[in-house]
Specification:
Blueprint lengths: L1 H9 L6 E2 L2 E9 L3 H4 L2 H14 L9 E5 L9 E8 L2 E8 L4 E8 L6 H12 L3 E9 L3 E2 L12 H6 L7
Antiparallel strand pairs: 1-8, 2-6, 2-7, 3-4, 4-5, 5-6
């Protein structure tokens, strides 16, 4: 009830919308199996890639070996690093020479050629499919709610906010 009236009240404050970010998806083929299976190699890639792309790591990379799941998935390595701008993740399938990667950021552009070259070199890929998507095309350029609108119950009372009924 409160959220609905607040939404109605503050929607008039939204004057402009824009793009939130971009999402680059890479699928790499015919890579070197030993590189695709090397957890340390993958961790180092996740450690250096954010800075190279002008992003900021907020967690250490997590790299996990995953065993075979089914005929389609013979197992491999999954890696992830959370960045202030969003995340970088990928999944390798060494026995298939394949890697699938996601680079999602709130930046409005990415250098696709630099990222593609980095992945191609890291895994010695023969070819790469690239999918580039603009995200959040109607992202509000200004806040549509007051700073205290996320407070509820005791939190709101403690800062003197009254929602009225």
């Amino acid at each position: 009830m409160y959220r609905d009236s607040l939404t109605h009240h503050y929607q008039n404050r939204v004057n402009q919308v824009g793009q939130f970010g971009v999402h680059l998806m890479l699928d790499g083929y015919n890579g070197v199996a030993s590189r695709l299976a090397d957890q340390l190699h993958i961790k180092k890639l996740l450690e250096r890639l954010p800075e190279k792309l002008g992003m900021h790591k907020i967690t250490e990379p997590l790299v996990v070996e995953v065993g075979p799941q089914n005929k389609k998935d013979p197992g491999g390595i999954s890696g992830f690093v959370m960045i202030a701008e969003s995340h970088i993740s990928f999944h390798t399938f060494p026995l298939r020479g394949f890697v699938s990667a996601d680079i999602y950021t709130c930046q409005n552009e990415l250098d696709i050629d630099v990222i593609s070259a980095e992945f191609k070199g890291a895994f010695k890929l023969q070819s790469i499919d690239k999918h580039y998507v603009q995200r959040g095309l109607r992202y509000p350029q200004d806040n549509i709610y007051p700073d205290d609108s996320c407070l509820t119950g005791t939190e709101a009372e403690s800062v003197g906010v009254s929602y009225g009924n």
